[in-house]
TrEMBL record:
This protein's name: ABC transporter-like protein
UniProt GO MF annotations: ATP binding; ATP hydrolysis activity; transmembrane transporter activity
CC terms in the record's Gene Ontology section: membrane protein complex; plasma membrane
Originating organism: Candidatus Berkelbacteria bacterium Gr01-1014_85
Nucleotide-binding is among the record's keywords: yes
Coiled-coil portions: none
SUPFAM superfamilies (alphabetical): P-loop containing nucleoside triphosphate hydrolases
Domain ABC transporter: 20-261
Length: 277
């Protein structure tokens, strides 16, 4: 049985059911699931409510990215359950899992994972292309997102023709294009210089506070913990403690205008406006 997790700060009250529920999750690699030496994650239990900005923080090797892969449905837990909107991810069929990846979550990888042979706007539109959205609607949506992130001038360039910070913003735009219920973000500042990293974190801060996006972000950088509403501290595959952080909601990040965030909120509210047609 795992030790009790220390909680710091006031737990906010919510009358909404959790969006994500992680219950007694362990993950092992290797042929013998009973070999404790192969355990990467140990008895993780927590929930994420709609509208939270949760940072999973810990040193390299603590299991953060493995947990993110489980939340993304890219891997399955050895024990325990992960449910999103009441659905156990381990019970989804391949078709249902593909739909989950396209429509319910957006993921931003540390290495951006942009396709070099596609233009910037085509990379942003890729999830809608996979969903069967027609050319003109998906191009329009991609260009609107690029404009919000001040990247419209690079729409027809290729990823190797823009900076790392710009590539990260393209990756965030791609993750948003299908109006996902939540974003999973893996070490978004790991490959960026300080100025670009700060700008990316300000954008994510605005997505949460102005556009009400639910965000789960993995990092080993302590400089950005203050952006979260809750920090989950991990070490050696276990949750050590969690800390709730209060914020002044009037704070407006300077990286993107408040008007732009309102447009993103409108996109989110009008879910389905860019459905197949």
């Amino acid at each position: 049985m795992s030790a009790a997790i220390k909680t710091i700060g006031l737990t906010p009250e919510s009358d909404q059911p959790p969006l994500i529920s992680v219950q007694s999750v362990s993950k092992t690699y290797g042929e013998d699931p009973l070999d404790n030496n192969q355990l990467i994650l140990r008895e993780l239990t927590f929930t994420v409510s709609p509208g939270e900005f949760v940072i999973i923080f810990g040193p390299s090797g603590s299991g953060k990215s493995s947990l993110l892969n489980l939340l993304a449905g890219l891997e399955r837990p050895t024990w325990g359950t992960i449910s999103v909107g009441g659905q156990d991810l381990s019970r989804l069929t391949d078709e249902e899992l593909a739909s989950y990846h396209r429509l319910r979550m957006g993921i931003v990888f540390q290495t951006f994972n942009l396709i070099k042979s596609l233009s910037v706007w085509e990379n942003v539109a890729l999830p809608q292309s996979a969903s069967g959205v027609r050319y003109q609607p998906r191009r329009k949506r991609a260009l609107e997102l690029l404009k919000l992130f001040k990247l419209e001038a690079y729409a027809n360039r290729h990823p190797n023709e823009i900076s790392g910070g710009e590539q990260q913003r393209v990756a965030i735009a791609r993750a948003l294009i299908n109006n996902p219920q939540f974003l999973l973000i893996d070490e978004p500042t790991g490959n960026l210089d300080t100025k670009s990293a700060d700008a990316v974190m300000q954008i994510l801060h605005g997505l949460h506070y102005r556009s009400k996006h639910t965000i789960i972000l993995v990092t080993h950088n302590p400089n950005y913990l203050s952006f979260a509403t809750r920090v989950i501290y991990m070490r050696d595959g276990q949750i050590q403690k969690q800390e709730y952080i209060s914020h002044d909601p009037s704070t407006v990040p300077p990286a993107v205008s408040e008007k732009s965030f309102q447009k993103l909120a409108d996109f989110k509210a009008n879910e389905g406006a860019y459905a197949m047609r």
